[in-house]
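so my prof wants the structure for this chain in the tokens format not the other one, which i didnt know existed until like an hour ago. anyway here's the sequence
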Amino acid sequence: MPKKVTVEDLARMVQRGFDETAQKADVEKLENRVYKIESAIIQISDTLAAMRKDIYEIKTRYVYRDEFEDALARLSLVEKRVGIKSGK
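here's what i got, hopefully its the right format
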């Protein structure tokens, strides 16, 4: 024969259910943590955007070393043919 459930048993079961349910304070803490994470992600995204811009500017102004050395060698030849002393 099944055991009869008393009012006290029901009260304990309901109380256990409430104990396991997230409390308002828990939800607020979680929301605060999520807000902080979102803020950090936005800051990281802004930093990456600035870095992309800086890298683009560097690329547009950058001269490859071999191109630079080639230009210096050609300038040196021009200086010799014209009779100009090198600035070195």
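also thought this was worth mentioning. DSSP finds three helices and no strands in the chain.
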